[in-house]
Write a structure and sequence with these properties.
The structure holds two protein chains of two kinds. Chain A is of the alpha/beta class. Chain A is built from five helices and five strands; from the N terminus they run βαβαβαβαβα. In chain B, the strands form two sheets. In chain B, strands 1, 2, 3, 4, 5, 7 and 8 form a seven-stranded antiparallel sheet that branches. In chain B, strands 6-9 form a two-stranded antiparallel ribbon. The chains are: A alpha/beta, B alpha+beta.
Chain lengths: 120, 174
Amino acid sequence: MAKRVLVVDDANFMRMIVKDTLTPRGFQICGEATNGAEAVQKYQQLKPDLVTMDITMKVKDGLQAAREILAADPNARIVMVTALGQERMLLDSIALGVRDFVVKPFTAERILSAVEKALI
Amino acid sequence: MKINAKHVNPFVEAAMKVVSQIAGIEVRRGHLSYKPKVEPSFGVSIIIGIYGFLTGQVVYSLDGKLAESLVDKLLAGKSPQQKKIMFLDSLGEVANMITGNATALLNQKTDQILNITTPAIAAGDNLSVHLVPKPALVLGLITQHGPIEISIAVEEKETLNETDSSFEDVLTEA
């Protein structure tokens, strides 16, 4: 059965890239969100197997959204996908319980590897 | 306002890496100049705010033809309709990636964070961009499809000082 992924990014372009990378590899994109608040709501509603989460978004950023999702479901599998490749953000994300941290721009292999490892 | 040339190289490095990786377009360094206030030279402008131990804004300005070439490469295989819909969105994401990668190079300390705002984008033939009148270092970049201009108007802060994250209202169409 295909693993269900919620893709969170404020840029339509980036959501398309993530979808175009994961779908041919057998993942099902069960939903999309354009900000952190929407991500928290859609996570509760859709119960995806994994979330790819941008950081810089309006309304609520990805770190806060990840914090809230993990507080409600400590087994949530979240991979941060962000342009902000600063070490402090990576450390903060890992401390939260995020499974991996992918810096944009990424290769297809990098995000596939992160997603597949996060689902083990 | 203290402007420091050391803030420029991370943007050059990041632009070369990002544009080459996602669009296969080679970027070369052009001239560096100083302007008493930011005035974008070309028809497409993207503004991103930076806040943390550096505060200010970075403005990317590129010619419409270069923007079209970039979007063509980014969205290769997509329909003209999809390219039209995602035109500004994809250019904003490129600027977001360049700025994000540059902040990682600017911030080598593990105890600090540099945040960036979501991009504000405007395009048009008779475009007027009104920004806070601050001095900027203006970096020219050269590609085979046309020039890119990056205006870097950031200053060092001793303490965290968040700026308004909304830049939409500084863009107006003349």
